[in-house]
Structure formats: structure tokens, C-alpha cells
Fold these 3 entries.
Entry 1:
Amino acid sequence: MGKGYWVACVNVKNQEEFKKYVNLAGPAVKLYGGTFLARGNNVFNIEGKKFERIVVSVFDSIDKAKECYNSDEYQNALNFLNDEVAERIIHLVEGLD
């Protein structure tokens, strides 16, 4: 079984509220063994819809990535997000490694 990758594409609409999410989401990812590979705004869009922020995290397995997403800790962070705070697309994918 390969590693699990969590890819988030985000357009932030309300920085203050988004910070509340980030302050809880980061520790939740780390709690479940996730490591951030990319987490920032230096994005170069070359095709498709543009997102200003891309976050890539890696977990030991796709199951661990799912466990993190569904955890109480991460779901608590999600309480700070809605359509007025951020537009997001989230994918979990199993790696080839």
C-alpha cells in the first residue's frame, strides 16, 4: 500500500476566519502523522481554474489520511469554514510509493 496524499486547492475569501481553521487544521494533520510537503501561496497556474493556495500533505497510508480528515480534531477545524470564508477542493490520493 502506498502513502496517502492530501491535496487541497483553496481560494481564501476571509483571512481572519481562515486563520482560525489553519490554527486547528495544522495540528490535526500532524496528530495523525501527516507532513506538509507544500503549504503556501506561491502557486503557478498553468491549466484550469486558478487557486491561490495549494496544500499537499503526506500520510503513511490513504487510510491514515482519511482517518485524519474524519477525525474530531479536523472536523472541529472545519467548523470555521463556509462558502464565505474559502472556496476549496480537497482530494485524497494513494501514492505509488
Entry 2:
Amino acid sequence: MASTVRQLKQMIRSALLHRFDEPRLELLLQAHVRALWEEHPWSFRQGEAVLMTVAPKTTGTVTLNVDTTRVDGTGTAFTATDVGKQFRGPGTTGTFYRVVAVTGQQLTLEVPWVGAAFTASAYTLFQSVYALATDVDLLLSVTDQWPLRQRSLRQSNVYDARRQYNSGTPWAFTPRGEDASGTLLVEIAPVPSSVTAIRYYFQRKPPALVDSVHLPFPDLLLVYRTASDGLMVLAGEKPDASSALLAIAQGYELKAAREFQDFQYKDFQKIGIQEAVHDESEDMLWDDSVAWSHDIGGLLW
């Protein structure tokens, strides 16, 4: 087990001859952890999770309130979990409105309803945008029965601007940025007509550098890299001792390079050197240039 952040800081302070103040040491360590984390697809960065979609609600009927930002339900099953979903009422436009509050069986819409009034009408309450796991840093692939194709928000709006197509087999996803907490969002299309389990693969975010966290990198790799940079900073600030400080810094840099090479080799043994792998089936007949078309139900080359 690697040392905690607190223990690493103590080791780095000693390597820096106790001449570096705490705030700058913290910044240097954060910078090196981030750089190392993003430098390679380390085994501990790989993750997978399952996104459970939500079935649209259509039970009961709805009536537009005198306040046209509100919709009253009869025989419906609205709950607080419906906040953030999209409401589609009757009419030929098929437009949808975001729900911002639920009070009993009454929905509050983000903006006033602009179509004709309606009474005891059919409706659809659906969700297409979902939050991923909180530690997702980079989304790599999304898979239902087959890999979902990534498309832009512009493409989504061109092909289904009103989000009125439902399907038991979603075939596309669109990254939709982050929510207020920094969690990545993704849109699934077409809107799943039932609960669907969609598996996705990703690279994790680096851990928060609180004192109790164990970092996955070798202690000496972080100590040598951080101390080397710190000594070079000190050499610029202390001209009278710069030669000695630079000599120690260069020694640390060489040791860090050896630690990194050894660590990289051991980690590649766990996951394989991905850049050199060409995905192939067991019979060695198909490689990763084969694609499945959901439109024609066959293979594309």
C-alpha cells in the first residue's frame, strides 16, 4: 500500500531539506499527481459502471392549470424524482418542457405552456439526460447490445430536436457537459421506451489530495519528482547555494525517471500496452474495423 498524502508530504519536506513552505509544497505535489495521472491509461484509472435508464411515464391524464406554468395530473404517479425530466403534452408540435418542481400530482414547468389549453389529455414524462458516476473523468465507450455511436448535440437536434422518438434499443449517446457538482452528463438516444441497463467504460478522476488518501503511485516516484522541482525553485531563489541545490535536483530527477520506468512497465503488465493491441475475435477473422449497422441490421466495413 502506498503512503498517505500526509506521509508523502513529510518525506518530500525532508528531501527538500525543510526549506520549502507548506503551500508551495502542496501545489507542487498536486501538479505532479495530476500530471502522472493523465500521463498514461493506468490500470487504476480504468472503470466501468451501469447506467439504468428510466421508463417514460404516461399513466393517467393531465390538465393545464390557469397558471400555465403548472400541469395538474389525474390518476398519475408523479414523484419528486420527476424533477428535471421533460414533459410533453398534447398537440402537433411535440415540444417538451423541463419540470422544475413536483407538488403532489402537479408539475411546475420551467417556462409557461405556449400551446392550446388541454383537459384530461394524454402526456409523456421522459428523461434523456443522465448523470454518470461521480468519478468519471473521461468517457470511453457506451454499450447496450452493441456500442452506442457518439454524436454531437447539433446532430441530436437535427435528427430528433423534439426528443419524440422512443426505442427499446438506444443507439447513440451525446456528452452533455457537467452538472453543478462537476458530474459528467450524457444523453441517450432515442429515448429508451423501458428501463434499460447500459454499460459504460471510463477513465477515473484523480483522487482528492486530502491527508488520509493513499495514492496509487510509488512513494519515491512522487518524492523525487516533487523534490526535484522544489529544489530547482530554491536554486533560483538562493544564488549562493544554487549549484549544490541543482546538483541534488538533477540526482532526484534521474532517480524519478528510473522509478517511473519501472512502475510503468509493471502497470502495463496488468492491462496490456493498449496502443499496441489490435482487437480481434478468437477466430482471428474480424478486427476492430468491423462495425454493426443498426439501420440495415448488418455489418459495415
Entry 3:
Amino acid sequence: MRLYALLDMQTLRKKGLQIEDFLDICKRLKAVMLQYRYKTGTFQEKRDNLAKIKRLSDIKLIVNDDIELVPYCD
């Protein structure tokens, strides 16, 4: 079985988790793909978060809703 993980920033914040915490979980569970979603964030916040995810993980990364952020993903 392959894991496709959804990183939703609003949910992480509600749970008191950081991106690093979520990526550690994804790595332990051997996730093969990560979808990033942040409905209320600014373009800059989203871009910065995507850069952090790419820097900290080699999991394939896709983005939800914002076509202009595609260059920052796989």
C-alpha cells in the first residue's frame, strides 16, 4: 500500500503541529506523495512553506488550488 498524504496548514495549526512534525510522520510512514493545501494563506506564506517542504523532504509534492505555485512543486 502507498500513502498519499495531505498537508493542510489549517489542520496542522489546529492540532498544534509544525510542518517539520508532519514531514517526520510522512517519512516514518513512507509517504510517496504529499499534497499541500492552505486555503487562507497568502501567496508568500504558501511559497515559503513549499520551499521548506522541498528543503526538508524528498517526497513528491503537489499543490492544491493555486496554479501559480506549481513551479515550487514537483
